[in-house]
Specification:
One of its GO terms (molecular function) is DNA binding. Keywords: Coiled coil. InterPro entries: DNA_repair_prot_XRCC4, XRCC4-like_C, XRCC4_CC. This is X ray repair complementing defective repair in chinese hamster cells 4. The protein has about 240 residues and is α+β, with helices and mostly antiparallel strands. Helix content is about 55%, strand content about 25%. It is built from 3 helices and 7 strands; from the N terminus they run H-E-E-E-E-H-E-E-E-H. A 7-stranded antiparallel sheet has the order 1-2-3-4-7-6-5, sandwiched between helices. Helix 1 (about 5-15) crosses helix 2 (about 75-85). The chain is rod-shaped.
C-alpha cells in the first residue's frame, strides 16, 4: 500500500497512542489473557509499508515483522487499525496466538463481521525475544511521555487561546463603552443644535408676521383716503367747478 493510502487509513480508521515515528502500544486480549502489543509502522518508498511487532504479557515476549498484503483499501485499513488500536482496537478485532515449538508462535488477527462471524485479516510468525520485556516497557513509557508532552502543548495552546479571548472580550467591552459615550455626546450636541434651529425658525416666523402687518397698514390708510375723496370729486363735477 502506498504512503498516500496509508495516510487515508490513518485518517479514516484513527490511531492509538502514537509518537512522532508512528509508534503504537495497545492492550489486547488473547484467549482471556492480557497482552501488550507494541507496533512500529515503517513506511518506505521502495517497499510496502512494514510493521515491527513486539507482543508480550509480562512473562514472555515475541517479535517479528509483517507487511500489509495486497488487497482492497478497506482490508488494508482494517489491517492497520488492528495493529495500531485504530477504530476501537481490540473492541473490533480478535487476536490469537498459537505456539510453534519453543521459540516461535503464530500471531493472527481477525475482524468481527458479526456476533459469531470473523474475517481473518492476516497472521505472522513471531520469534521469542528474551529481551522484549524491558523494550516493551520502555516503549510504553516513551509513548506515555510523548502523550503527556502533547497534552501539555495542547494545554498551553488552550491557555493562550483563553487569554486571547479574554483580551478580545475586554477590547470589545471598551468599544461598547466608547460607543455608548459617543452616542450620549452626539445626542447632547444634536439637542443643542435642534433647539437652536427651533429658536431660529420661531424668530423668523415672528419677524415675518411683524413685517407683513407693517406692509398692510399703509395700504389700508391709502384705500380709506381714496374712498373719502370720491364724494368731493363728484360734488365739484356737479357744481361745474
Amino acid at each position: 500500500m502506498s504512503s498516500q493510502d496509508q495516510d487515508e487509513c490513518d485518517t479514516s480508521c484513527g490511531a492509538g497512542e502514537e509518537s512522532s515515528v508512528n509508534e503504537f502500544v495497545q492492550a489486547i486480549e488473547i484467549e482471556g489473557s492480557r497482552y501488550y502489543l507494541h507496533t512500529v509502522a515503517k513506511p518506505s518508498a521502495a517497499e510496502p509499508l512494514e510493521y515491527e511487532l513486539l507482543l508480550g504479557d509480562g512473562r514472555q515476549c515475541f517479535t517479528g515483522l509483517v507487511q500489509i498484503p495486497d488487497g482492497s483499501e478497506e482490508n488494508a485499513c482494517a489491517f492497520h487499525a488492528a495493529l495500531t488500536a485504530g477504530a476501537g482496537g481490540g473492541r473490533e478485532f480478535v487476536y490469537r496466538l498459537r505456539p510453534i515449538g519453543e521459540e516461535r508462535a503464530r500471531f493472527s488477527w481477525l475482524r468481527r463481521v458479526s456476533h459469531e462471524m470473523l474475517s481473518r485479516l492476516n497472521e505472522v510468525i513471531l520469534r521469542r525475544d528474551p529481551d522484549g520485556g524491558p523494550r516493551l516497557l520502555a516503549a510504553a513509557l516513551r509513548i506515555v511521555e510523548q502523550r503527556d508532552a502533547s497534552l501539555n502543548n495542547l494545554r498551553e495552546k488552550l491557555q493562550r487561546t483563553q487569554a486571547e479571548q479574554a483580551r478580545t472580550l475586554e477590547a470589545l467591552q471598551r468599544s461598547l463603552r466608547f460607543k455608548e459615550e459617543l452616542e450620549t455626546e452626539l445626542y447632547a450636541k444634536f439637542s443643542l443644535v435642534l433647539n437652536a434651529k427651533k429658536r431660529f425658525i420661531r424668530e423668523r416666523i415672528t419677524n415675518g408676521q411683524a413685517t407683513a402687518e407693517e406692509d398692510q397698514a399703509p395700504a389700508t390708510s391709502s384705500s380709506a383716503s381714496s374712498a373719502a375723496s370720491v364724494p368731493n370729486q363728484l360734488d365739484r363735477l356737479v357744481s361745474g367747478e
